[in-house]
Specification:
By secondary structure, the chain is of the alpha/beta class. The protein has one domain. It is 57% helix and 14% strand. The chain contains ten helices and five strands; from the N terminus they run ααββαααββαβαααα. β1 and β2 form a beta hairpin. The protein starts with 8 loop residues before the first helix and ends with a helix. The structure holds zinc ion. The site of zinc ion has 4 residues, from α9 and α10.
Length: 230
């Protein structure tokens, strides 16, 4: 099997900088920005987060999920996506939006619409390009797994740990939508129920493992402060 060409973030950033000045200026003035990122333990696919300058902080959250929360998820969670990520297009454009008219969390796109990536280019080194969208406002209010989410939520009372938990939970939801749509891009014929089971399984297991680790460090801190008293 021929593997995808490996693309570096620097090559894509260089390509974006090398676009004709008029095109670059129009896109910049329209508020379009790009954040290029990679799963930290894999050579590909390269993820290009296309977003409005107003959503730069949100694009940063998604990049954090791809770069760090992915790597922090247990090996067995990541294993479920091994083949999918291996067979994925070398470059995936994620159009990060606030909402979708249809109310969906995200979709895969049949055609690449993001202008700088819509036509093949030498800079992509022959890598295929895929595209999807993610509606982050919808992801924020999404009840992914209401029962287990509530059970995990109850483990943190309030304050900074609860905030940290909610931030991680949100990023893992975005990551699971990204993985879900990548699954659709790679295996368009796979049944929705299976694709969904895989992405919710990833979300659930990654979040549960985060909570387990957080609880372990919490009880360790409590133990230490007790032993100091004794
Ligand atoms: Zn789906």
């Amino acid at each position: 099997m021929e593997s995808e060409h490996i693309l570096s973030p620097a090559a894509v950033e260089e390509y974006l900088r090398s676009l004709p000045r008029g095109i670059r200026w129009r896109r910049w003035a329209s508020g379009r920005r790009y954040r290029v990122t990679l799963f930290s333990d894999r050579p590909g696919p390269l993820i290009v987060i296309a977003h409005s300058f107003r959503d730069a902080a949100m694009a940063q959250q998604l990049a954090h999920a791809v770069e760090q929360d992915w790597a922090a998820a247990p090996e067995r969670c990541r294993e479920a996506y091994h083949e999918i990520l291996w067979k994925a297009p070398g470059l995936i454009v994620v159009q990060l939006r606030r909402r979708n008219v249809c109310g969906c969390l995200g979709h895969r796109h049949m055609l690449v619409k993001e202008t700088p990536f819509a036509e093949p280019h030498d800079a992509f080194g022959g890598a295929r390009v895929g595209e999807m969208d993610i509606a982050y406002k919808r992801v924020e209010t999404w009840q992914a797994l209401p029962l287990s989410d509530t059970a995990l939520d109850a483990k943190f009372r309030e304050g900074s740990r609860l905030e940290e938990f909610h931030a991680r939970q949100f990023r893992l939801r975005m990551l699971s939508v990204l993985l879900h749509e990548t699954n659709h891009l790679v295996f368009p014929g796979e049944e929705e129920s299976l694709v969904r089971q895989r992405s919710l399984g990833f979300y659930h297991d990654a979040l549960a493992s985060y909570v387990e680790n957080a609880m372990a460090t919490l009880s360790l801190t409590i133990d230490r402060s007790f032993s100091r008293l004794g």
